[in-house]
Amino acid sequence: MNINWFPGHMKKTRELLKEQLKLVDVVFELLDARIPFSSKNPEIDQMIGSKPRVVVLNKADLADEGATTKWIHYYKSKNITAIPVNTISGKGLRNVIQQAEEATKEKREALLKKGRRNRAIRIMMVGIPNVGKSSMINQLAGKKSAQTGDRPGVTKGKQWIRLKGNMELLDTPGILWPKFEDQDVAMKLAYTGAIKDEIMDIETLALKLIEVLIPLHMDKLMERYSLKEVPETPLETMNEIARVRGCLIKGGEIDFSRVANIILDEFRGGKIGRITLEYPEEVNITN
Where is each CP-type G domain found (predicted)? Predict the structure, then answer.
């Protein structure tokens, strides 16, 4: 599978980010806690430069806790604060706000000494599609300010949003990057739903996911799908899951489309278990 997806609005968003960064005090960089490396836009570091930043590891409730701790320590070694959150429940968001206040404290104090009024902290939130930006905005604003959805590409335009307390946030659409040079990264993005399923071969994607999960999480697959024996291959695993879930068509043949959607939906929803697909020591991090 060769994955490449870069809608036109993402190019415009990249240009918008560069233009608007000078207006904000701090950047919230949202990453998927299950794939912190793969969900990081490699262009963001260059765009942000020395601007204060808080890394938000969203969907931490779906990720392995031990792995998330390793990622927090990794970012700490880079003098960047990373905070695990669940934007659906709001857990961890108070810590994000506190960190934003701390990161902008010197600038705000300097402005006050110059006689400037205590204006709102201006925040920019960036991240790839479907990483949870809209849900986080709604939690921080205390109302439904941003459109949300379980598919990538919901947010399409720029908007300033007043948050609880003395804060304003510049929302931007999620952006990927023009070319996936590493197809392993692209596959992880597809597994977690950052790339639209409509452009994917769902059956092959689900099979590839099973292939990834078997070495480390076969026990979780067996428990979730009530498998009595360990299948010999990823395809046979998929076949067994289909039989257990009744994903059959006329003649007893496997309905691969149906079982593929079940596997992907249940992985993305954490029903198979809390699973992280990459660790700091396993990926080629250059930032």
Answer: 13-178
CA distance 278 to 48: 24
Apex 136 CA angle, 133 and 138, nearest 5: 110
Listed by start position, the domains of the chain span 8-180, 201-268
- State the CATH architecture for 201-268: Orthogonal Bundle (1.10)
Per residue in 210-243, pLDDT (tens digit) is: 999 999 999 999 999 999 999 999 999 999 999 9
Binding residues for GTP: 58-61, 130-135, 174
Q: Look up the CATH number of domain 8-180.
A: 3.40.50.300
Distance from C-alpha of 139 to C-alpha of 144, rounded to nearest angstrom: 8
Distance, in Å, from the CA atom of 159 to the CA atom of 171, rounded to the nearest integer, reads 5
HSE of 284, CA atoms in CB hemisphere, 13 A: 4
CA 107 to the chain's CA centroid: 30
Which residue carries 């204060």 as its tokens? 52
**What ranges in the chain are assigned the alpha helix state H?**
8-20, 44-48, 65-77, 93-103, 105-113, 133-141, 183-192, 202-224, 234-244, 256-268
Give me the residues paired with residue 91 across strands: 86
List binding-site positions: 58-61, 130-135, 174
* Contact present, 252 and 10 (Cβ < 8 Å): no
Question: What is this structure's pTM?
Answer: 0.85
Identify which of 286, 287, 279 has the alpha carbon closest to the alpha carbon of residue 72.
279
CA distance 208 to 188: 10
